[in-house]
Amino acid sequence: MREEVYESNRGLRAIATIIDYIIIWSFFIIYIYEFGELQEDGSYSASGLKGLAPFIFWFLYLPISEWKFKTTLGHWTVGLEIISENQDELTLWRTIKRRIVDPIDIHWCFGLLAFIIVTSTDKKQRLGDILAKTLVVKKK
To answer: Which residues constitute the domain of residue 118?
Structure first.
């Protein structure tokens, strides 16, 4: 196992997450304004099949790019990649499991929970990493 696995990279991870979610939320906002319907209260909403596009974008951007490239644009920018704990091939299912808890780990408290967990675990893992048995490490 690589030695740098246990380095504290929480600052880089925070920057990577901010970059990734700026990209995701920018897409969501632009998409909703372009393809959503104006509601009586002045807000926009996309429902039905139109409402699936933001989820599909999220799925393609996070789990698929982590699976295929071991990184996202945010993680790539700061020199980080995702690997499995046991050095096995990173699978799509593993990256989905890693992201399935984002609403709790990242969204619910703006990443504070993830930051606390990364700081307090030996392998510097957030909840999604623990569930998926993944690590975020500096690229070789």
So the answer is: 3-138
